[in-house]
Each structure stands twice: as C-alpha cells, then as structure tokens.
TrEMBL record:
Coiled-coil segments: none
Domain DUF3463: 60-191
Signal peptide: none
Top-level taxon in the UniProt lineage: Bacteria
Protein's UniProt name: DUF3463 domain-containing protein
Pfam families the record matches: DUF3463 (PF11946)
InterPro entries noted in UniProt: DUF3463, Hopanoid_synth-assoc_rSAM_HpnH, Radical_SAM_PqqE_MftC-like, rSAM_sf
NCBIfam families with a match to the protein in the record: HpnH
Protein species of origin: Streptomyces tremellae
Length: 196
C-alpha cells in the first residue's frame, strides 16, 4: 500500500496513530490520494483496510492533481484513467460498503457517470501567506482577506478547457462542492443522498 516514494516507517506510524486515536474515542477521517501507479485492486485494498481493519470513521478519496510544485510530475492520473480506475474499483456496489465522506454525485463523477465544472472557490485555503488563489492546488498568489479573494479572483478563468493546468484535475476540492450544489438543487439527488 505504500508507494515507492514514501518514507520508510511512515505508514506504520500513521496506522499506529489511527489505532491510538480510535482507542481514545476520537473520530478519524482519512484522505487517500491515488496516482497512476494505482489499480482498481490497490484502491479496493486501501479502502478495505481503512474501512474494515482500521475502522476509520470516514474516508475521503481523490485522484492526484499535477500541481506545479510537486516534486514528482510523472505519476498523476489523467481524466480517462481516473474514470477507469474508479469505475472498476466501485463495481458490484462496492462503493456503498465503504464509509466514504463524499456525495453520491462526486463518486458518479469519478466513475465518469456525471460531468461537472470545477468550483474552485468551494474549499478555500488559508495559511500564513493569506488566502490561496484560486484553490490550494494552484500557486496563483494569495489574497490578504477573504473578501479580496472572492472579489478580485477571476473565477471564470479556471477549470477544464479554461486553464491548461486544470485539464487533468478531478480533485475533490473543486468537484465535490459542485456535486453538493447539484445534489441540493435536485429533489431526486437530495433523496438519493439521504437514502444512500
């Protein structure tokens, strides 16, 4: 489950920390990022381990995004590869057995059953530098205030077909907000979200 790029011993330390947190009564959420070295089988293995063995309370997943500062630019998933991996990993109703912390429509999006535009302002990121524009995956500078971020960022210039850096992005930070908005705007999808 650990990639070739991981540091020795980090996985074991993370597992021990999760077990300790669960034993102390904390809710534990994980965020697993998948790369082009992953297969449907490795996705299933990771999610089964987190869900069934570690009993993590909620699991988040995302295809890796080729952000500019990433030291390794060779292992990011493209859109079609992402859809194929998740379509196969979620087959036979498997996605319903995991405690995934995602809307049904975002999971449909990962499988290629739904198409959305990015909502880059949906998960704003703040650090010592300020509010990152347009999302935490891109380095287009920082705004000093939240108002400045919202009012002075040209949100319409980001997303697939608008900015080449966005062409292979399917990350949850931009597409889960869109899926949630689509769910809230549809009685059918809202009922689906409640009933699972």
């Amino acid at each position: 489950m650990a990639s070739d790029l991981s540091k020795e011993g980090v996985f074991d330390k993370a597992v021990a920390a999760i077990k300790q947190a669960k034993a102390a009564g904390f809710a534990v959420y994980t965020n697993s990022t998948f790369f082009n070295t992953d297969t449907p089988e490795s996705v299933i293995e990771v999610l089964d381990f987190l869900n069934d063995e570690l009993k993590v309370d909620r699991l988040e997943i995302s295809p890796a995004y080729a952000y500019e500062k990433a030291p390794d630019q060779d292992h990011f998933l493209g859109v079609e590869q992402t859809r194929e991996v998740f379509r196969k990993a979620f087959a036979d109703g498997r996605r319903k057995r995991w405690r995934l912390n995602h809307s049904e429509l975002f999971l449909d999006f990962l499988e290629g059953k739904a198409e959305f535009e990015c909502t880059p302002w949906g998960v704003p990121s703040y650090s010592l530098f300020g509010w990152q524009r347009p999302c935490y995956l891109m380095g287009d500078g920082y705004a000093k205030t939240y108002r400045e971020l919202l009012e002075e960022t040209d949100w319409d210039k980001y997303g697939r077909g608008k900015d080449p850096r966005c062409d292979n992005c399917m990350a949850h930070c931009g597409y889960e907000p869109t899926a949630v908005l689509a769910t809230m705007g549809s009685l059918k999808q809202s009922l689906r979200a409640v009933t699972g």
